[in-house]
Amino acid sequence: MPESILNKEGPLSTEEMDIIKRHPVWGAHVAALAQCPETVINIINYHHERYDGLGYPEGKCGTDIPVEARIVATADIFDALSSDRPYRRAFSVEKTLIILEAMRNKELDPVLLDIFFTTINQKR
Hints:
The chain is about 60% helix and about 0% strand. By secondary structure, the chain is mainly α. It has one domain (about 5-124): Hypothetical protein af1432, CATH 1.10.3210. It contains 6 helices and no strands.
């Protein structure tokens, strides 16, 4: 993945988004060549699928997305929102949780989101 795309401060072009959308397949291919476990390959390949089916690379939805990928997707989005990025400052944990809640049944699995919230609240 080119650093110029990963660290771009403005919106991505259609071509740049097409490159971004291919990274899970590339990564899963490399993991398969390295003989990584199927769980690892599933995480890499499906962590950008959305619970509502509007994700990539395959448009899987709901429980058709491997559970390990749904778990990592929740953690990945939490990390992305609560970390500084080249194009914006990190959101507070409170704001991040509000944004995650708005993703329930869209990007994120509602059952796993409940477990995530319970875990986060126990740690706070």
